[in-house]
Amino acid sequence: MDMEYVHQPVMLNEVLEGLDLKPGGVYVDCTVGGAGHSEAILRRIAPGGCLVAIDRDGEAIAAAGKKLAGFGDRVRLVRENYVNLHKVLESLGIKEVDGILFDLGVSSYQLENPGRGFSYHTDSPLDMRMNREQKITARDLVNALPAGELARIIRDYGEERWASRIAEFIAAERERRPVETTGQLVEIIKKAVPAGARRKGPHPARRTFQALRIAVNRELEDLQPAVASAVRLLRSGGRICVITFHSLEDRIVKNLFRRLASPCECTGKIPACVCGGKREIRIITPKPLAPAEPELKTNPRSRSAKLRIAEKL
I need a labelling partner for 16 at 20 to 30 A (CA). Which of 37, 63, 149, 190 fits? Predict the structure, then answer.
């Protein structure tokens, strides 16, 4: 199904201010998606500013190429996983940059495109790959992993109370026939989650789908090294902005920022630091920023977004 790649940029004004954009600067959007943030950044850094726009999703790169075509060679589009940011910049001959943005999570386009298998609202092939060239899909995990490992993923990545029960029901169903579609998986989850729990809170499949998406795309494993690498690539005074959409992502970014801002590991009994830890960043947002009320009304999907900002020393 052909769809236009549309994704409303979350906390756009906060990101533009947080990056402290400078005309002529060099910036990186590590998750270009629908290019909403990228387009606004390019306008702010004119004349002469350059943006490197990265995404692992080939459809996002193609759509961004069309949307940003008018900026010519001021934008470099690269299909790559953001965990390889250092390799991308090295290949472009860029040693350091003025600002870097990570807008994590799944895009509106990916959710709404029935062929991608991210949504529990439509029945589609159980896929969930952000990079459609990678081999492992959600279908592979659901049908091949031992029930215990499946329960761990659903519990740890989805923070799902009924993880073990859901995994057991999946294991029982796949003995009869493979679990091929999102619709099948939703029905299994509904049977596994007790009726009382289904009547309260979000859709009963939301946490399991989040967990499988994270596992398929290695989102949590790649996040810490990617953000740490990005900090090293900033020039002094450069800014990094990270938008997260669930507590697991936010906790990783918060703890990394704290460690880079206060690296000393000496105990309180030692009068002066002897470990040699050196501060790399200044945290701009001690508490993460959240979308303002007007944005929540126009873009309800932004409700769980948190923005953390830091500056390279």
Answer: 63
Out of 197, 217, 237, a domain closes at 217
Q: Are residues 209 and 294 in the same domain?
A: no
Q: List the Cα angle 300/108/38 in 5-degree steps.
A: 100
| Tens digit of each residue's pLDDT (9 = 90 or more) over 116-130 | 999 999 999 999 999
Query: Residue 149: which domain range?
Result: 121-217
Whether pTM exceeds 0.70: yes
User: Integer distance in angstroms from the first to the last C-alpha of the chain?
Assistant: 47
**CATH number where 174 lies:** 1.10.150.170
Secondary structure letter of residue 275 according to DSSP:
S
Contact between residue 196 and residue 226 where contact means Cβ atoms under 8 Å apart: no
Identify residue 155 by its one-letter amino acid code: R
* Mean of the per-residue pLDDT values of the chain: 93
Beta-strand relationship, 26-29 and 75-79:
unpaired
Do residues 171 and 192 lie in contact, with contact meaning Cβ atoms separated by under 8 Å?
Answer: no
192, 217, 242 - which closes a domain: 217
Which DSSP state fits 73? G
